[in-house]
Amino acid sequence: MRCVLAQEIRNARGGQYTFALEAMGEASSEDEFVNGFLANFTCRLILFRFRNINKDPREAIELAAREFQPEFGKAGRFSLDRFLGSRGGGVNFAIGNGLGVAVVVEKKTPGQLTFPPNEPHHGAIRIRSVKLDFSAVPRDENNTLA
């Protein structure tokens, strides 16, 4: 079981990327969130490259990832920082089929989730905000092609 919330980065290029998220945990109770949701699921921030021109984020190549663990009823800020690019002169960073960011929630335990009969269960993360910051690679005036 996997849930992916993804967005393509328009006009992507080499530089420093900071993908930030503000999120909190929700459930019927804190116990249900901790022992139901967090015990069975993992949450990650991902910076990725699309594998092909179909641009399906489920088939993406991960370039950077960070696990995060939201708290029940309390918004927390989580971020992923990564430099994508060449540090050497005359070399371009391969964008390929484009870049994107994603929030992924995945089941980490084997088997099916089981709950007592006739009892509603609820466990989720509420995303309050998402932000992507980009700083371009500084231009090196001494790096020229003859």
Q: What is the helical fraction, as a range of percent? A: under 10%
Spatial strand arrangement across the major sheet: 1-6-3-4
Biggest beta sheet attributes: 4 strands, antiparallel
**Global mean pLDDT:** 88
β-strand number? 7
Question: Any idea of the CATH class?
Answer: Mainly Beta
- Beta-strand fraction estimate: over 45%
CATH topology: Jelly Rolls
Keywords for this structure?
146 residues, Jelly Rolls, three-stranded antiparallel beta sheet, 7 strands, elongated
Commentary on this structure:
By secondary structure, the protein is mainly beta. The chain has one domain: Jelly Rolls. Helix content is 8%, strand content 48%. It is built from one helix and seven strands; from the N terminus they run ββαβββββ. The protein has one helix at residues 30-40, and strands at 2-9, 15-27, 41-49, 61-68, 76-84, 99-107, 123-136. The strands form two sheets. The protein has a four-stranded antiparallel β-sheet. Strands 5-2-7 form a three-stranded antiparallel β-sheet. The chain is elongated. The model has no long low-confidence stretch (mean pLDDT 88).
